[in-house]
TrEMBL record:
Monomer. Belongs to the HAD-like hydrolase superfamily. MasA/MtnC family. GO terms for molecular function: 2,3-diketo-5-methylthiopentyl-1-phosphate enolase activity; 2-hydroxy-3-keto-5-methylthiopentenyl-1-phosphate phosphatase activity; acireductone synthase activity; magnesium ion binding. This is Enolase-phosphatase E1. Its cofactor is Mg(2+). Coiled coil: none annotated. Binds 1 Mg(2+) ion per subunit. It comes from Acetobacter cibinongensis. Pfam families: Hydrolase (PF00702).
């Protein structure tokens, strides 16, 4: 007899296109980083974090002036660790002076609060750096919701389209693959996570124009994902 799968114990969430609109990342965050990058790098040239990211940029693109390389990566939307680290530093300044306020989809905070109250572990896996992830969740319309999350994984565990990254993060967190539900809008990320044994669901946000794949369960928002995977709904915990 086949038994019904139990509800996931851990929900691992992508950000762009899953919890935050793509337009917030591409039309607000990325242009802010592009506008202020050169100035922030100049002002913080003695900061060891800036120096480390610039050294890594030079290592990855020898012979290219680092600022030029960073601009190339920004044009390509490259998911590269030193760019992501520096974008995070630029955004930190923007959030601090009130020029940036995070925009999340309206279902996100109420749903995460309900899962948190039900004892479900919540974690982030985004190409944005860990500090950038904490900034987004630290500056929502509902205030600082970072305490809802136990872990913030970024490119240090590897790229999101590689199965090995999911194996690494499972190891680091001590989670069993089948206990974890990964939510993302990008099917290549779901492929990689599924290959590592995680349960997966594609979040297909109408506003983002995400195209639904055919291989995995599809949900229009976190409320639908909850219902598909036996997780509590808003206000049910
Ligand atoms: C941490 S918010 C900025 C997100 C970002 O820089 C990015 O490249 C989007 O990555 P994601 O993995 O969340 O799709
Ligand atoms: Mg995404």
């Amino acid at each position: 007899m086949k038994t019904a799968a139990s509800a996931p114990r851990v929900v691992l969430l992508d950000i762009e296109g899953t919890t935050a609109p793509i337009s917030f990342v591409h039309d607000v965050l990325f242009p802010y980083a592009r506008t202020h990058m050169a100035r922030v790098l100049e002002e913080r040239k003695d900061d060891p974090a800036v120096q480390a990211a610039l050294a890594e940029t030079e290592k990855l693109a020898p012979g290219v002036p680092p600022l030029e390389q960073l601009e190339r990566w920004m044009n390509e939307d490259a998911k590269v660790a030193p760019l992501k680290a520096l974008q995070g530093l630029v955004w930190a300044e923007g959030y601090k002076r009130g020029a940036l306020v995070a925009r999340l989809y309206p279902d996100v905070v109420p749903m995460l609060e309900s899962w948190y109250r039900a004892g479900i572990e919540l974690a982030v896996y985004s190409s944005g750096s860990e500090p950038a992830q904490k900034l987004i969740y630290g500056h929502t319309a509902q205030g600082d919701v970072t305490p809802l999350f136990t872990r913030f994984f970024d490119l240090r565990v590897g790229g999101k389209k590689e199965a090995a990254s999911y194996v690494s993060l499972l190891q680091e967190a001590g989670w069993k693959a089948s206990d974890v539900l990964f939510l993302s809008d990008v099917t290549a990320e779901l492929d990689a996570a599924a290959q590592a044994g995680l349960r997966v669901c594609q979040i297909v946000r109408h506003e983002d124009g995400t195209v639904a794949g055919t291989e995995y369960p599809v949900a229009g928002n976190l409320i639908e994902a909850a219902s598909l995977f036996g997780l509590p709904g808003i206000g049910q915990a």
